[in-house]
Design a protein that fits this description.
Layout: H1 12-17, E1 21-27, H2 31-42, E2 47-51, H3 77-90, E3 94-97, E4 100-105, E5 117-121, E6 124-133, E7 137-139, E8 155-156, H4 159-162, E9 170-174, H5 178-187, E10 193-197, H6 207-215, E11 219-222, E12 225-231, E13 238-243, E14 249-253, E15 256-259, E16 263-265, E17 295-297, H7 309-330
Parallel strand pairs: 1-2, 1-6, 2-3, 6-17, 8-15, 9-10, 9-15, 10-11
Antiparallel strand pairs: 4-5, 5-6, 7-16, 12-13, 13-14
Helix pairs in contact: 2-3, 2-7, 5-6
The protein binds NADP nicotinamide-adenine-dinucleotide phosphate (NAP).
NADP nicotinamide-adenine-dinucleotide phosphate binds next to α5.
């Protein structure tokens, strides 16, 4: 390890083995990971956060966040996340960029008490006493012909990133959840017309978003319908849509296809180390502890009911506190 931590003090293991063993490594820099970073850094735990892209997670793709308390007029996703990052770094959180490819428990046959865990990124190994998994989730794909081929050439998973490319054009949005409806509303600022294609006859999105979407004159709906194919030579030209009730097929001409059909958790790198549900979400107890001692999970990668910035932050704080108690116990620190 070339860099020296600014606030982190070497722990006992470090001194013995002359290598850095972090108190905690957080994997993922969305609201859950950054909140865990704020709490652990304030508790003066030497903490490294590993982020594969830009800190902020999926929240930076959100134009405006209206339901994070404290901002009556809402706050732009990137702004909120930048503030969280600044807050964490100010308390001493260290951030390293790279994709985590493996997490493992160090096997030391001579030292059964060795609780060191190993996190691998960019072919480097980092050692730590505790791990907080906050790796979030990413957009699900439709899995239809044309989707992969025309990705970036009309097929998109991020309205905030790509909407300006579709000024005065016709767009379809696939999905009926909060993301699809929020993004469809945002897209109307640029597009001439937005058709929402949803597989049922009612939306899943929260009521206030439904009120707005039904009142928006640029938006129309293809209910009970699924996209079966995305067509186009160089760029998207149309989508084939099938009505699930009548089996009728129709072609909708469009320049853009925005897909918002849910998320898949970023948990593949865990490779069976931790117990997951059938969809790959991490199972934890109420204190964010996973099936492995010293490894915690929070945010969208965790199996739970409500996926919001505010719940991610709450879980990040809980995971950090539980991890802190575990680390202090390992180091023989007592509150008594
Ligand atoms: P979601 O709530 O899982 O909704 C996914 C939507 O896509 C559903 O309407 C679903 O239809 C549809 N769908 C799923 N698979 C499909 C397929 N293969 N083909 C066609 N349609 C398909 O996902 P999300 O909207 O991305 O939201 C994820 C989480 O983040 C949710 O908990 C949401 O509340 C939260 N979120 C919150 C906010 C906010 O509070 N402002 C904003 C964005 C997201 P069905 O309805 O038939 O299942």
């Amino acid at each position: 390890m070339s860099e020296v931590l600014t606030q982190a003090k070497p722990n006992d293991k470090e001194r013995n083995k002359e290598e850095i063993i972090y108190d905690a490594i957080i994997i993922g820099g969305g609201p859950a990971g950054l909140t865990a970073g704020i709490y652990l850094s304030r508790a003066r735990m030497s903490t490294l956060l590993i982020e594969k892209a830009l800190p902020g997670g999926q929240a930076i793709l959100t134009e405006i966040i209206e339901n994070y308390p404290g901002f009556p007029l809402g706050i732009a996703g990137p702004e909120l996340m930048q503030k969280m990052e600044e807050q964490a770094v100010q308390f001493g959180l260290k951030i390293e960029y790279g994709e985590t490819t493996e997490v493992k428990i160090k096997e030391d046959k001579e030292d059964k008490e060795d609780k060191v865990k190993i996190v691998k990124i960019n072919n480097k190994e980092y050692k730590t006493l505790a791990i907080i998994l906050a790796s979030g989730a990413e957009a699900s794909k439709l899995g239809v012909p044309g989707e992969e081929e025309l990705r970036g050439r009309g097929v998109s998973y991020c309205a905030t990133c790509d909407a300006p490319f579709f000024k005065d054009q016709k767009i379809v949005v696939v999905g009926g959840g909060d993301t699809a409806i929020e993004e469809a509303l945002y897209l109307t600022k640029f597009a001439q017309e937005v058709t929402i294609i949803h597989r049922r006859d009612r939306l899943r999105a929260t009521k206030i978003l439904q009120e707005r979407v039904f009142a928006n004159k640029k938006i129309n709906f293809a209910w009970d319908s699924v996209v079966t194919k995305i067509l186009g030579k160089e760029k998207v030209e149309s989508v084939l849509v099938q009505n699930k009730k009548t089996y009728e097929e129709k072609e909708i001409s469009c320049h853009g296809v925005f897909v918002f059909v849910g998320n898949i958790p970023n948990s593949k790198f865990l490779n069976k180390l931790i117990k997951l549900d059938e969809k790959g979400y991490i199972l934890t107890d109420d204190n964010m502890m996973t099936s492995q001692e010293g490894i915690y999970a929070c945010g969208d990668v965790r199996k739970k009911l409500l996926r919001q910035v505010v719940t991610a932050c709450g879980e990040g704080a809980t995971a950090a506190f539980t991890a802190q108690k575990y680390i202090e116990e390992l180091k023989g620190v007592s509150y008594k």
